[in-house]
Amino acid sequence: MSTQNATRILKLEGGCNFRDLGGYHTRDGRALKWGMVYRTAVLSYFTATDNAQLSQLGVRAICDLRRLEEREREPTRWPDNKTQHLSWDDGGAPPTIRAIAPKHPYTAAGMHSVMIDLYRALPSWMGPRLQGMFERIAQGDVPVLVHCAAGKDRTGIAIALLLAVLDVPHETIVEDYLLTNAADFEQFILTRHEAHLGVATTNHPLLTLPDDIRRVIFSAHADYLQGAFEQIEQEHGGVDAFLDRHGIDTTMRSKVKATLLAA
After folding, report:
1. DSSP assignment, residue 81?
2. How far apart are CA 226 and CA 174, in angstroms?
3. DSSP secondary structure letters along 182-236
4. Nearest in space to 224 (alpha carbons), one of 147, 93, 111, 131
5. Residues classed as catalytic
6. For residue range 2-51, what is the model confidence (pLDDT) as tens digits?
7. Which domains, and CATH codes, for the chain?
8. pTM of the model
9. Do the beta carbons of residue 131 and residue 48 sit within 8 Å?
10. For a disulfide at 37, which of 21, 22, 56, 244, Cβ 3.0-4.6 Å?
11. C-alpha 5, offset from chain centre
């Protein structure tokens, strides 16, 4: 791991996969400002020590990409009561691992295919969530924190699209996405045994899943993110057209660039 990537990961006792997007460079050599956009997993298990650190970030808006049932099961606990909390309706039949898994063999290879199908289905469903995230940044409500359950799938897609709008090279976008693999989800689950991370239910805790299948679910794999971008290309002809369809127009994207990129 590079020194910069090690720097961008925030070490928290009750947090997981929490990191700063600062320092990434665009194709024209500009840099994303530090301390403007954070991405992470569930916000339910912070300690008093964590809260002291988190309060210093000055986060103005939290974009919670999770479904209602996840928000109810693992409610957000954030130390700053001035921070805005954004969430959205689920709409009909939100795509989930549990819904897609029966279509594939219950093997590691089958689960890999499940994850690709999930990533293909998520962008369109996430439209209102993406619009809300981009709108907040365009309005200058930064620093902003974007999260889901594990901070990998929905957050991974949202951040990948944000970096694409900023014209960060695709290889850097993938690098940021794969940095999730530095997070030790298994240790987090062991130390926070009630954690569900959007996958488990009370009757089916995460640690009862076969090891090889659990690894597939909690790994970030370039194939997954590629599936999302391929679906966007097939359905809309590219990222810009996809974002336009969801109310994230050229003006909003320009404001996002002005907010996040150093001159």
Report:
1. T
2. 9
3. GS-HHHHHHHSTT--TTT-BTTB-GGGS-HHHHHHHHS--HHHHHHHHHHHHHHH
4. 111
5. 148
6. 656 668 999 999 999 999 999 999 999 999 999 999 999 999 999 999 99
7. 3-260 (3.90.190.10)
8. 0.93
9. no
10. 21
11. 17
